[in-house]
Design brief:
It is a single chain. By secondary structure, the chain is an all-alpha fold. The chain has a single domain, classed as Glycerol uptake facilitator protein. It contains nine helices and no strands. Helix 3 crosses helix 5, helix 4 packs across helix 7 and helix 7 runs antiparallel to helix 9. It is globular. It is found in: Cell membrane. InterPro entries: Aquaporin-like, Aquaporin_transptr, MIP, MIP_CS. Keywords: Cell membrane, Membrane, Transmembrane, Transmembrane helix, Transport. Belongs to the MIP/aquaporin (TC 1.A.8) family.
Length: about 230
């Protein structure tokens, strides 16, 4: 139960901090943090929670990461489903908190016809810069694949584990710097699902891509590290 609570709170913090920065702070004229600030916010959520609760649960905070670690031989299949449920629950609760806060702003409404509504992910007309489904799929696949390689490498028994959280947090920051214009950045199915549930419409109908592409990318990343990169002795 402690592990599942750690994953719940870690994923909650990721969605609340990352999506919250996009919703509250990114677009303020002259003072807004912009794309770079949102990217850094996502990285900081993972970095801080990796040190806060990573020693309890391993600090996945992402269904794709859990699948990739399982594929890489670092995580038990017996815990996989329960971790994913805890992560999705944490993400949905965070989205609910964000929605409640935004309701306190005069004139707030979620426009489900706009790309990036409520920090949702999307492709085609719902991509921030109009990228196609194929482009979105490749971006999410490749970025999640490399994210898993970074995670597996940084947490390898031969690596300096004290800095694993820094490497993983900065990797997620870089991922967002690359892909916010493409898909609004997922690489995390729980994060995508939580926002899409509150938006509905097309973003919810497109959420399948933000489960399939990251999970496939994580599987390939786990296999690459386990079979080609991992030091055996």
């Amino acid at each position: 139960m402690r592990k599942l609570l750690a994953e719940f709170f870690g994923t909650y913090w990721l969605v609340f901090g990352g999506c919250g920065s996009a919703l509250f702070a990114a677009g303020i004229p002259e003072l807004g943090i912009g794309f770079a600030g949102v990217a850094l916010a996502f990285g900081l959520t993972v970095l801080t929670m990796a040190y806060a609760v990573g020693h309890i649960s391993g600090g996945h905070f992402n269904p794709a990461v859990s699948v990739g670690l399982w594929m890489g031989g670092r995580f038990s299949s017996n815990e996989l489903v329960s971790y994913i449920i805890a992560q999705c629950a944490g993400a949905i609760f965070a989205a609910g908190t964000l929605y409640f806060i935004l309701m306190g702003k005069e004139g707030f409404i979620i426009d489900a016809t706009q790309a990036g509504a409520f920090a949702s992910n999307g492709f085609d007309a719902f991509s921030p810069q109009g990228y196609s489904m194929a482009s979105a799929f490749v971006a999410e696949f490749v970025l999640t694949m490399f994210f898993l390689i970074v995670i597996l490498g940084a947490t390898d028994k031969f690596a300096n584990g004290k800095f694993a959280g820094v490497a993983i947090g900065l990797a997620l920051t870089l991922i967002h710097l690359i892909s916010i214009p493409i898909t609004n950045t997922s690489v995390n199915p729980a994060r995508s699902l939580s926002q899409a549930l509150f938006v509905g419409g097309t973003p919810l109908s497109q959420v399948w891509l933000f489960w399939v592409a990251p999970i496939l990318g994580a599987i390939v990343g786990g296999l690459i590290y386990k079979n080609l990169l991992e030091q055996r002795k």
